């Protein structure tokens, strides 16, 4: 498993200047999710650990 976190300039619809993306690759499958802040990403990761 690999996980990569990157930041990108956000489109105007996000209402923030930058977004944070996490890309997870597991056994050939790729999962990508975008967040409006690092704290939102951190909160999501806490819930993933409990899943």
Descriptive account of the structure:
It is built from 1 helix and 3 strands. By secondary structure, it is of the alpha+beta class. It is 25% helix and 47% strand. A 3-stranded antiparallel β-sheet has the order 1-2-3.
What is the makeup of the main sheet? 3 strands, antiparallel
Strand order of the largest sheet: 1-2-3
Shape: globular
**Continuous helix count:** 1
The unreliable regions are none
Mean pLDDT: 92
Write the layout of secondary structure elements.
Layout: E1 2-9, E2 18-26, E3 29-35, H1 38-50
What's this model, at a glance?
Helix content is 25%, strand content 47%. By secondary structure, the protein is an alpha+beta fold.
Brief descriptors of the model:
51 residues; alpha+beta; 3-stranded antiparallel β-sheet; 1 helix; 3 strands
